[in-house]
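cron nightly-structures :: item 1 of 1
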Amino acid sequence: MVPLGKRSMSIYVDRSSRQWIVRDPDGNFWILPVVNHPWEHRQPLVLSEEVDLEPVPGHYRYLLELPF
């Protein structure tokens, strides 16, 4: 049996709305508002053709206070 390995997260900026977007380790996408403790105020994101995600380096997770 082969172990599944560590699931990762990704951080993006949506160019169309200029908001932070996070894909959590379970594969769900979240919009993070620009507030204190943004993860606590996250909203689900439904991907559509209007969403234009640009990858952001992972070290921004500390700025966004992500729990993973």
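cron nightly-structures :: done
The mean pLDDT is 88.
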